[in-house]
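cache lookup: miss for this entity combination. No prior model stored, computing from scratch. Input as submitted by user K.M.:
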Amino acid sequence: MKRMKRLIPCFALVLLFGVLFSACSLLPSETPENAKQTTGNGGKTEMTTASTASTTAAHVHEFGEWAETDAATCTAAGTERRVCACGAFEERKVVRLGHTAPGEDGKCTRCLAQIGYSFPMDQVTKLDGTIRTKQNDYYVSTNYYGAAIDLSDLPYDTVRITKRAGAEDMGYAFLTALPVTNGQKPAYTAGYTKVIWDTNETATVGIPTDAKYLYVYYASKGVLSLPSAIMFYNTDVPATFTVASWNIGHFSMGGKKTSTITDDAYATEKAKYLSYINSLGADILCLNEYSELFTPSHPAYELFFGLGTTFEGEQRNYSCNAIYSKFPLKNEAAHNFACNTSDVVLHTTAIQATDYYYVTGELKIGDETVTIVTLHLAFHEKLKPDTVCTNQMDELIAKFADTEHVVLLGDWNAYYAEYYDRFAEAGYTVANDGSYLTCTGSKTSGLEWPVDNIIVKGVTMTDFRAVNTDLSDHVAVVATITLE
Ligand SMILES: [Zn+2]
Ligand SMILES: [Zn+2]
């Protein structure tokens, strides 16, 4: 088994250095004005502030716990402070919280600002005629109904749909840029649809900028049963959020493109997957080796219902990337690697470099944009250097050279951890320097390779961790991201 050297992650070293520097900053040889900005825990900005004129030469500050001095609010940053017995203290900024999602009254549940618009259900236009099956086919049924909401006068980026109490069976919703007409098959565009399933009480989805209609099905045994509430609002993305990346291994330990979970095991297996996913606490969940089917007759979107804005890329051999975000992502798109325009066979099988691609989406935080990139890079363990994998890495560095805030996450297939060094050299923070083995290699049953990683630029990354599971041949990696 290949052992990776275990190092303290880079950002942990930055943290450690920051605290030590603070401790030294008030030695008599230094001026009290000596202030140093460092990277703080929880993504907060630390600012060492001198407050005492005299200390003994041997004194090293011992700061207590951080305590709030000005509380952060939905709209304004706060501060917190920790104090040494000598009276010296450090202060750091606490990023603004952003409004919560609205309650049923459309108000932020923290500051009670009116941020949501409850769409009057009696104005929902009812259409009859079509229903979508689990296999994404449509058929006409006189027993089912749909409803459409014209979005043209609704300047919101998010919609939350609440199931009617006691409603059973199926419910769907999706957003479309095309008109919906009575009795006709509604327009559905792959990669664009936001599907609602009926197993959760609510679902929240981001509205693409070009969406024209929200189309809702909610019917049970021929009885029209619309949602109980449809709330539109603009999501105020907080400056601190959690991202996770997981190669979900096609729901079959990475072995096949389609699921080996049987329909009979659906409920049990679904509960396992959801329990693990929920344990990650992610606001944005990126998946590699996503498959459209969870079981032969249950589409994977049932599993991920309610996780928010969805982008599912196309299935290419082993590669299929998806993003689920609790916040609206703008301009979601899939990208081919320009360095792999010719087909490079990676294994003795027909897996080609062109199978691999990446997906981007933009997160608007105030006036800033953070680009989220989920990627799956090519793999050729026998080649060192793996010129396909490293060329793709170099292409990503070039692609985002002028992008200020970037979060790159996914399965990098970096069989050798030093492949990541190029990102550190390009000014990125690399969470997994080889210390976290995240994939069971083909040779042993244990975790062998540090292939799953989160690499960022222009944001602060804290609390990186790998979360064990036996549901895939990969474990998920998680980190907290803060836009200072
Ligand atoms: Zn002190
Ligand atoms: Zn608020």
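stored under new cache key. The radius of gyration is 25 Å.
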